[in-house]
Amino acid sequence: MLDHDDVNLILDSLTLPRGMKASASHDLWEGVQVRIVYTVENSFRPGEQIDLGISSYLSPNDLRDEETVQRWVIWRVWRIYGHEAREQVQRDGRPISDPHASERE
Questions:
Q1: Three-state SS string across 1-33, please?
Q2: How far is residue 10's CA from residue 61's CA, in Å, rounded to a whole number?
Q3: Which of the ends of the chain has fewer CB neighbours closer than 10 A, N or C?
Q4: Tens digits of per-residue pLDDT, 71-98?
Q5: pTM across the whole model
């Protein structure tokens, strides 16, 4: 199983989408964590840039080898894009599917 140093070497070898940076660390209780910082336009204040900090833990299955880490990175980037799309597709200045709203709103 790979550790956070191995994951950092893999992350350093990847070209991530523009505005994204990633690094791995180790948590005593949870294991390997990857933090992705993504600079995007603030969907609630157009023209303003914000840095999103997205921290995620990898399961042991994600740490088997370089290929599984790469697949996890692709999956995580895909999830981030989906979240941002839900914020940015709007009608009358409000997201149609706000990922931060409760189901009851």
A1: CCCHHHHHHHHHHCCCCCCEEEEEEEECCCEEE
A2: 16
A3: C
A4: 999 999 999 999 988 888 889 988 898 8
A5: 0.87
